[in-house]
Specification:
The protein has 134 residues and is α+β, with helices and mostly antiparallel strands. Helix content is 25%, strand content 22%. It has one domain. The protein has a two-stranded parallel sheet. A two-stranded antiparallel ribbon has the order 3-4. α1 crosses α2. It starts with a strand and ends with a strand.
């Protein structure tokens, strides 16, 4: 599951509430075996917005790099048992032109973890962030 913090259609807190109810109903162990929630800072409804908002949620499921493509991460989870703990989201310089170049990348962390800047490196690079408990 994923949800943008800047979603103007469905409040992000509703998805967190839903996820929390699933955890409460079936337990942490069951949830960790089959459900992940990724919150995307600055992402609007399903995409767009000022934050990094592209992580393979559109297009061919299961193809590409599982560190950057949610469908490929799901396929790896099912086939090899490696659950996604983070997925790298990308913000293009021009959303209408994927070849325009990358403006920034950020890790989307498996909830409830959040991305925290290490204090060194570019703030526009996912490599400068760790997924940590809030």
């Amino acid at each position: 599951m994923y949800h943008g913090w800047a979603d103007s259609v469905i409040p992000a807190t509703l998805t967190i509430d839903y996820y929390s109810r699933v955890v409460q109903k079936i337990g942490d162990r069951a949830v960790n075996g089959g459900v992940r929630l990724f919150m995307a800072p600055g992402m609007d409804h399903c995409g767009d917005g000022p934050g990094p908002n592209t992580f393979g949620q559109y297009g061919a499921a299961g193809s590409g790099d599982p560190d950057y493509k949610v469908g490929a991460a799901l396929q790896r989870w099912v086939e090899s048992g490696t659950a996604p703990e983070r997925i790298i989201a990308t913000k293009q310089k021009n959303e209408d032109d994927p070849k325009s170049g990358v403006l920034r990348t950020r890790p989307l962390c498996a909830f409830p973890k959040v991305a925290r800047y290490r204090g060194a490196g570019s703030t526009d690079s996912a490599a400068s962030f760790d997924c940590v408990s809030p």
